[in-house]
């Protein structure tokens, strides 16, 4: 990354009911930080005015929630509705966005949650970054330890057994979430650099 350009700022806005999704959020954070981003992690059920300002100042926002009853958690929905204040003022227009989710079932209707995040981002005029991985674990030579072992494309999906704690989040899902964090940081760096180049060319 050029020394003349600031690091992209990525914020992770998430809710975790029992700690499993928090593990996935940490993996996204680690991946984005490893790719050179400045990363903020915001628990949406405890969000403060200062953290709203962090989101407003971010170049990218990654949404995360467990999938409960086929959609994001109630706590995340409360946060999403509160973003309407940003929507009215186009505060998040053209930011980069992405998403991740977790549930106990391998499918568990997680796609619906990721599509909910995509719709939220679209309403704000944000640009969605997908996972960018082929499906794993879909052949006789595949393994449950493949990246993207659950075969989602629009975001990172994790599966955690209902009778186990956060320490049992699958290693492949953690690695997939780290990949998403790196991908978001890399895409955001391109956006930030491109805007800086366009601004310089206009002078």
Automatic annotation (TrEMBL):
Give start and end of each Flavodoxin-like domain: 10-155
Record's Pfam families?
FMN_red
Instruction: Give the top-rank taxon of the lineage listed in the UniProt record for this protein.
Output: Bacteria
Q: Name the SUPFAM superfamilies on file.
A: Flavoproteins (SSF52218)
- InterPro entries from the xrefs? Flavodoxin/NO_synth (IPR008254), Flavoprotein-like_sf (IPR029039), FMN_Rdtase-like_dom (IPR005025)
Name under which the protein is recorded: Flavodoxin family protein
């Amino acid at each position: 990354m050029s020394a003349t350009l600031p690091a992209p700022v990525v914020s992770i806005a998430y809710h975790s009911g029992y700690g499993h999704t928090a593990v996935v959020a940490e993996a996204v954070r680690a991946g984005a930080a490893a790719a050179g981003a400045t990363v903020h992690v915001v628990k949406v059920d405890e969000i403060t005015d200062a953290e709203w300002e962090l989101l407003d100042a971010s170049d990218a926002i990654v949404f995360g929630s467990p999938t409960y009853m086929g959609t994001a958690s109630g706590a995340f929905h409360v946060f999403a509705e509160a973003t309407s204040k940003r929507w009215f003022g186009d505060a998040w227009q053209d930011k980069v966005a992405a998403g991740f989710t977790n549930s106990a079932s391998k499918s568990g209707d997680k796609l619906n949650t990721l599509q909910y995040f995509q719709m939220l981002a679209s309403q704000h005029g944000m640009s969605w970054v997908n996972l960018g991985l082929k499906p794993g674990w879909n052949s006789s030579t595949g393994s449950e330890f493949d990246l993207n072992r659950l075969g989602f494309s629009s975001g990172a999906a994790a599966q955690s057994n209902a009778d186990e704690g956060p320490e049992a989040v699958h290693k492949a899902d953690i690695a997939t979430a780290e990949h998403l964090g790196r991908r978001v940081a890399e895409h955001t760096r391109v956006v930030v650099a491109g805007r800086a180049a366009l601004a310089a060319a206009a002078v």
